[in-house]
Amino acid sequence: MVQFTKLRLHGFKSFVDHTELLIQPGMTGIVGPNGCGKSNLVEALRWAMGETSAKRMRGSEMDDVIFGGSVNRPARNVAEVTICLDNSDRKVPAQFNDSDDLEVSRRIDRGEGSSYKVNGKDSRARDVQLLFADSATGAQSTALVSQGRIGAIINAKPTDRRGLLEEAAGITGLHSRRHEAELR
Ligand code: ATP
Ligand code: MG
């Protein structure tokens, strides 16, 4: 699977200033007091991977991910998150598979929606979602479980739980491609 090596963000939720985090191989823990932004960092990953639901980002509309201002800082109009990936084992879809390092960015401009870039080239949300879905199949897949979701998984209806497990197993990309093929 591709290894996440860096997370860069600015204007995203509480991370108003340019912030860069190195992600080393192995386990990473984020520690800090309540409200310091731990969940916001995990959400930044999920958002740059193509999340479409504002609710899953704990907002009512997608613009809510943009820094909304604080007592001494005015609100921003742009948020941007970049994930750097080590693609040396070349697991991503062919159109992106020509380099060992990949940078996937998503940017949102207030009132104008999101745009994506892969290694500086404009990309579709769909291609970014499939890039992550495909680069993580099987037991080593990327699965993000948010705070409070464990209870939801336990209490979910069997069909919903299957959806969550499929996502964790990394086969969602295959399903959504099959769905697209059936619509054609
Ligand atoms: P806990 O330990 O309670 O889970 P946490 O470290 O996960 O806390 P987060 O939920 O990531 O904390 O961060 C919450 C903080 O982010 C709050 O102070 C909230 O005001 C701030 N925040 C969220 N969205 C925005 C935004 N759009 N603009 C500015 N601040 C924001
Ligand atoms: Mg949290």
Please, could you describe this protein's structure?
The longest helix has 12 residues, at 158-169. A hairpin with a 2-residue loop joins strand 5 (113-118) and strand 6. Helices cover 28% and strands 21% of the residues. With 184 residues, it is α+β, with helices and mostly antiparallel strands. The protein has one domain: P-loop containing nucleotide triphosphate hydrolases (Rossmann fold). The structure holds adenosine-5'-triphosphate and magnesium ion (MG). Homodimer.
Helix and strand arrangement:
Elements: E1 3-10, E2 19-22, H1 38-48, E3 78-86, E4 101-109, E5 113-118, E6 121-123, H2 125-134, H3 149-155, H4 158-169, H5 172-183
Antiparallel strand pairs: 1-2, 1-3, 3-4, 4-5, 5-6
Adenosine-5'-triphosphate binds at residues 13-14, 32, 34-40, 64, 66-68, 147.
Family: Belongs to the SMC family.
Function: Required for chromosome condensation and partitioning.
Subunit structure: Homodimer.
Side-by-side strand order of the widest sheet? 2-1-3-4-5-6
Bound compounds, each kind once, are: adenosine-5'-triphosphate, magnesium ion
- Secondary structure class reads alpha+beta
Helix content: 25-40%
- Give the CA-CA distance, first to last residue: 30 Å
Query: Largest beta sheet, briefly?
Result: 6 strands, antiparallel
* Average pLDDT for all residues: 88
The whole-angstrom Rg is 17 Å
Order of helices and strands: EEHEEEEHHHH
Number of helices: 5
Please give the domain count.
1
SS strand fraction: 15-25%
Oligomerization status of the protein chains: single chain
CATH topology: Rossmann fold
Organism: Dongia soli
Family: Belongs to the SMC family.
Binding site for ATP: 33-40
Protein name: Chromosome partition protein Smc
